[in-house]
Amino acid sequence: MSGDAQVLLGIDWGSSNRRAYLLDAGGALLRQHEDDGGILQVQGGFEAALAALLRTLGVTRADVIMSGMIGSRNGWREAPYLDVDHPLPALGARLVEVPAPLPGVRCRIVPGYRYLDAQGIPDVMRGEETQVLGALALSARSGWFLLPGTHSKWVRVEEGRIREFFTYMTGELYALMSQHGTLSKVMDAGRSVPQAFAAGLHASRDAPFTHAAFCCRALVVTDMMPPAHSASYLSGLLIGAELHDILRRCGGSLHETVQVVGSPGLAARYLSALELAGIPAHSWQPDAVYLAALRALFDLDDSAREAT
Prior knowledge:
This protein is 38% helix and 25% strand.
């Protein structure tokens, strides 16, 4: 492609990784790129990192929209959190401009959201709002959206507005507990064991998490559970803890379809947990969701896209 052509570039720029989606003026995907150039690796050199990405993609002029931790306090430019009364479809009007980073390049950042619970305790998100916007653009309806990851998020949406959301440090805790501390000494994470995952999910319903987690070790050292089952059991405990909290907040049951947006491997665990709990779910492909969000943020309509 010509380096002088005007293109649209969306970047999901997180702490560890960066995913870029190059679109033509009508919103058709031209090229996709992924690397480990997250904000922690860039260490403040955001302009140089963007310039290198543009060279990799072979373009010099672009309209860029970025989402994720790039808009955090440790990112390129802090994008203030929006309160949840601001509708998702209007996110495109609240993008935060990054002043003239490179010649021929316009950069804007998607703001995150802040939610205060009934006790006045805040929760925040950066990046997930873009995924929810994309799922809505692809015909997802109101209800609960589940975005698994290092920090898993449950987001309840009604008529295009976020009503509440809750973050769980599930992925981070799994990494810490499986790699450090006493539980890691008995853990064998070689393969997934569905029956052990189901057992952990069941155990999470009746016992406080810290007690249930210690019992994971006790099950192994008393030879009541093979070490090869421990990782799946812990995964079931952690995912079960967040699932049962959501059920508690919903009065004990959840009958509407949960919209799951996540990488296939991680989403599969949550889909399994939801199935075991008797909760209907629908899985969305993350790249398709992000592309739909970009087309909404760039304000591209279907007719313009079909003409390309």
